[in-house]
Structures are given as C-alpha cells and as structure tokens.
Design goal:
8 helices, binds zinc ion, (wild Malaysian banana) hypothetical protein, mainly alpha, LOB, 3 domains
Length: 156
C-alpha cells in the first residue's frame, strides 16, 4: 500500500484507514467510483459484514459481483442484473431456435441431394443377405460409389 493514503472506502466515509481495513484490498483509492456505487446500493456496513463472513480467497469475487450488481441496479432500478440476465437468456433461446431452424434446413438440403431413405435401407438389407461386401473386399472396397457400380454391374 502506498503510505498512509486511505482506501476509497475510508476516504468516502471519512475515517482512518487502518492496516487491517477490510475494504482496502478491494477498493483502491485510485478507483473511488467502485466503492461509492456499492455503498449507495448496499451500504458500507452491509458490505463490510458480507466480506467478513466470507473466506479471504472469495472476497475479491464477491466484491466484483457486488460492483456488477450495484452498477446494474443503478442502470435498471426495477430489475437490476436480473434484467441483464433475462435479456441474455432470451437471446440464447432465440439463437438456439435459429440454430435448430438452420440445422433442419441443412438436413432437408442433404436429403434432397441423397437418394431416398427407403432405397438405401433396401440396399443395406441386400448386402446383409448376400454378403456382398466380403466378396468385394479385394477390389478397392473402401470406395462405396465404386462398390455400388460393381454390384449393379454384377447383378445385370
Ligand atoms: Zn480503508
């Protein structure tokens, strides 16, 4: 800490900033707005109590959450950060809907390019019956299109 300069909280509350001031690590004197907004919404003594109830390693997160909520509450006095959350949730569900529509369109486009489903199933059934894939193994069996061509050729 830089010398005797009080933290933002003690400066605003006009009190002496002691070495074990609970606000000092989270409300530096160079950012007075951060404390003033939290103080206005929650009150300094409530913030102090909240911080005291928390383990030290969680206090910084709690402070940034308090600052976020206080800022949101100032911008939107009725809903506060709930307003932002529900706005974002709305956006997520709209985007999920758009994604589902796009995926359906992709599926439709794919089905229009490929032969009808029934035909494919019949082919698969035929393969199982005749054991064609095993017969075709030695002749470039990895290429499905070629296999189909050969099969058609054998069968005619
Ligand atoms: Zn202080």
């Amino acid at each position: 800490m830089e010398g005797n300069s009080p933290c933002a909280s003690c400066k605003l509350l006009r009190r002496r900033c002691t070495k074990d001031c609970i606000f000092a690590p989270y409300f530096p004197s160079d950012d007075p707005h951060k404390f003033s907004i939290v103080h206005r919404i929650f009150g300094a003594s409530n913030v102090s109590k909240m911080l005291q109830e928390l383990p030290v390693h969680q206090r910084a997160d709690a402070v940034s959450s308090l600052v976020y909520e206080a800022t949101a509450r100032t911008k939107d006095p009725v809903y506060g950060c709930v307003g932002a959350i529900s706005y974002l949730q709305n956006q997520v569900s709209q985007l999920q809907m758009q994604l589902a529509v796009a995926q359906t369109e992709i599926l439709c486009a794919q089905m229009q390019q490929e032969p009808p489903m029934a035909e494919q199933q019949v082919e698969a059934y035929d393969n199982n019956l005749t054991g064609m894939p095993q017969l075709m193994n030695n002749a470039s069996s990895s290429n499905l299109a070629q296999d189909q061509l050969k099969r058609e050729f054998l069968w005619t």
